[in-house]
Amino acid sequence: MRKHIRSLSALVLSAALLSWGGTGHRTVGKIAAAHLTPQAKAAVHDLIGDTTLADISTWPDEVRSQPAYRHTAPWHYINLALGLSYADFEAKVKGMTQENVYSALQQQEQILGSTASTRLQKVEALKYIVHFVGDLHQPMHVSREEDKGGNTIQLNYEGNGTNLHALWDSKLIDHQGLTFEQMAAAYDHATPAEIKQWQSDPLIRWIWESYQASSKLYEEVDAMKSRAIDDNYYQAHIAIVQDRIEKAGVRLAGVLNEVFRNGLATSAAVAPVANSGDAPDHAATPIAVQDAAQHYNEYVKCCAKVYGVKELENLTLVNLGAAYPDQPLTVVLRDAAKSLGPSLDGKTICVTGTVVKYKEKPEIVVTDQKMIVVPDR
Fold first, then answer.
1. Contact 271, 46 (CB under 8 A)
2. Measured between alpha carbons, how far is 86 from 204 in angstroms, rounded to an integer?
3. Do the Cβ atoms of 121 and 367 come closer than 8 Å?
4. H or E element that contains 216
5. Strand pairing partners for 317?
6. Which SS3 state, helix, strand or coil, does residue 349 take?
7. Mind listing the pLDDT tens digit for each residue in 332-351?
8. CA-to-CA distance for 288 and 272, rounded, in angstroms?
9. DSSP symbol at 83
């Protein structure tokens, strides 16, 4: 009986974590699919076959409670204080050291577009991108840390208890009574000029729009005399939901069209083994650590001295070539490789993997201890 209760609780928690709900995320995927270029459609089909963008849109929420994916939880949102100007907002977001949806989306785009990424890495990156573009357009995923994005702000909607975050994830969407196919058909009416503008807006602008919306929602709820809301709230806010989901779908298509502008980026020599502990050494290009920024999306081998190690909850950061913040390359240790960190400080190591850009700086993500060799051991 206790086992059954624990399983039921896990299901309830998993459902509560779904941003935009399943229906909202699938609507984003459905809209995006209608705006893909022929090259992007072919690349997506090459990766996931007859499975659709709508089908894969909820996968990151479905797996993040599993041990292997728990480190991805911060990738779904970004916490910010209220009252920031656009300039301060941009500086704050771009200067964050903790992982968030802004940094995670950019990292997954790098993986998807790299010739050095394996097919599995590209498939997972595609799933993350579809999901994260939806996440960052949900206003309560760009919100305050102290109330967990509205999760602790209790409300009563249509006679049932809920919270501000859940209201915007799914309650307003559910009130429509539409399937995701029906929602996509009803929402997807952007003009060519709007599509061009939305897709050309920088990523920081997408997040700023959600920040402005969540700031308004916080202001409203703080002014409420009663936490009971009804159909009037739905009528006053459903247009925001529609706008955010439509823009998310159109912009997701823009991201994929750009990544797959020249088709699916693959390399027969490298793609099957990139970022694998079993990768043959001859598949990696030897580089000097100071030249790492010149080799984005390339599968390389780099040997240099470690100047400091920082252990975080889900990863360990290794400064290669110089001490933070002047290191020319950061090695990010995850999963089975995370525990290596303390033993590497002060030693010369050789790391093999794909160079990706994170906050305008190069890094190599290491998940297998075999990707790192200490020559003097």
1. no
2. 10
3. no
4. helix 203-223
5. 310, 332
6. strand
7. 998 778 889 899 999 999 99
8. 24
9. S
Query: Is the pLDDT at 2 greater than 90, yes or no?
Result: no
Which residue segments constitute the domains of the chain, with CATH numbers given?
2-259 (1.10.575.10), 281-373 (2.40.50.140)
- Phi and psi at 362, nearest 5°, equal -80, 145
Nearest to 183 by CA among 191, 192, 173: 173
Which position has the token pair 């936490």? 227
Q: How far apart are CA 21 and CA 9, in angstroms?
A: 18
229 strand-pairing partners: 157
Which residues are paired to 352 by β-bridges? Answer: 301
Q: What spatial distance separates the first Cα and last Cα of the chain, rounded to whole Å?
A: 52
231: its two tokens: 């159909």
| Helices 119-137 + 21-33 axis angle, to 10 | 110
**b/e sequence 326-347, b meaning 16+ C-beta within 10 Å:** ebbbbbbbebebbebbeebeee
Is this prediction's pTM over 0.90?
no
CA dihedral defined by 208, 213, 215, 221, rounded to 10 degrees?
-170
Residue 58 has, within 13 A of its CA and on its CB side, a CA count of 20
Number of neighbours of residue 221 by Cβ within 10 angstroms: 16
Give per-residue pLDDT as tens, 242-256: 999 999 999 999 999
